[in-house]
Amino acid sequence: MTMVIHPLIGGARYTHTVTSYKNGKLIDEKRIPLYNNPPLTYIFDPFVPFRMQKDTVWFGFNNLACLRGLARRRFNRSQKIVYWAVDFVPNRFGPGLATKIYDAVDRYVCKHADYRVELTQEGIDARNAYMGIPTNRLAPSIVVPMGAWLGRTPKTTRESWHKKKIVYMGHIVERQGVDNVVRAMAILVKKDPLITLDIVGGGPDEPKMRQLARNLKLEKHITFHGFIDDHRDVEALLADATVAVAPYAKIPSNFSVTSDPGKVKAYLGASLPIVLTDVPPIAKVLQKKKAGLLCDDNPDSVAEEVLKFVTDEKLWSRARLASEKMAKQYDWETILSTKLKEMGIN
Question: Could you report the per-residue pLDDT of 204-237, keeping only the tens digit for each?
C-alpha cells in the first residue's frame, strides 16, 4: 500500500509525503519538497509523485486525487476508484474561474468513480443538490463517518478531572471559533485561576490568537503548541486534558454543518467530555448520549458550559464514561472492515 499526502497549507515546511507499507509495516517514506502556494499549486498535486506502481483500489480524498485515479484506471494502472470526500464546500474558492474548474472536476469524478464516500448523509444530500445531477447518473454513495484508532489512543482517567485543563485541537481559523475559547478563558480564570488551556494546531489566525491571549493577560494560562507532526503526541495531549472544546462559528461559510469533524472523534477517542456548538451533525448526538454539552457561539456560553464540567465531578465522570462508550462505534478498525466490504473491497 502506498499513501500520498499533499500539503494543505502554504509554506516551505510543508512537503509532499509518499509512504509505502507492506503487510502493515512501513518500508519506505519519501518527502518531496516543492514550491507550495495553495490553492494555486493544488493543480500540480495529481502529478506528485510522477510514477506509481499498479494498484487494485485507488482512494482519492479530494477530487483532483480522484481524477488521477480515473486516469490510472483508463490506462490499466488501477482497477477500482473511490472518491472519498472529507468535506463539502459550496463555492469553494468564491466566485470566479477557480471554483468553476473545481466544480467541473467534482462533477466529473462523482459521475465516473466506482464509489463516492461522504462523512455524513447531510454531505451527500448537499453535494447532490449543489451539482444538480440526477442521482442515477452519479456513482453510488455511502456514508463513512470519521473514526479514531482506539487501540492505540491513550484515555483520560478518573484523576483527569483534577487537572482543570481544557484542550482545543484543530485549524486556527475563524470558522473554528478559537477566539471564543481564548476569550472564554478570561472569564474562567477569574472563577478559578488554576484552569489552563492547551491549543494544539496552527493556521492563519494563530498570530492573532496569540496576541489576543497577550492582550487578555492569559500567557500563563494558555499554551500554544502549534502544529504537531506526530498524531500520537497530539493524542497524548488530549488524554492529559479534562475537557475538550469545539466551538464552531455559526457563519454561512462553515462547511462543518455537513461534515463529521475529525477533532470530535479524536476527543471521543481520548474519552473526553466535550463542549461544542450545534454546528456539525454529531453535536446533538453527543448531547443526547450525554458525552457533551452544547454552547452558543460566544465566549460567555463557552465558559458557562466548560465550568459545569470543571466544577461538577459527577457530571464530568458521567460524560467521560459516555464519551468512552460512544467512541467504540467509531473505531476505525470496525468502520473500515464494515464499509470496505459494502464497497466490495476486501
Answer: 899 999 999 999 999 999 999 998 888 889 999 9
* 123 SS3 class: helix
Determine if residue 177 is left, alpha or beta; phi over 0 gives left, psi from -120 to 50 gives alpha, anything else beta: left
DSSP letter for each residue of 154-204: ----GGGGGG-EEEEES--SGGGTHHHHHHHHHHHHHH-TT-EEEEEB--T
CB-based burial, 320-338: b 16+ in 10 Å, e otherwise: bebbbebbeebbeeebeee
Cα–Cα distance for residue pair 298/179, rounded to 1 Å: 9
The SS3 call for residue 233 is helix
Which cell numbers in the block locate residue 12?
516551505
Percentage of the chain beyond pLDDT 70 is 99
pLDDT at 13 exceeding the cut of 70? no
Domains and CATH numbers, the chain: 2-145+334-342 (3.40.50), 158-330 (3.40.50.2000)
pLDDT mean over 187-202: 96
CA distances from residue 11 to 34, 270, 274 in whole angstroms, order as listed:
10, 31, 32
Taking alpha carbons only, the member of 58, 139, 143, 64 closest to residue 106 is 64
- Can you give the pTM of this predicted structure? 0.85
Please answer whether residues 68 and 59 qualify as being in contact, where contact means their C-beta atoms are separated by less than 8 angstroms. no
Tell me the Ramachandran region of residue 91: left when phi exceeds 0, alpha when psi lies from -120 to 50, beta otherwise. left
Contact between 163 and 332 (Cβ < 8 Å):
no
- Hey, is 117 helix, strand or coil? strand
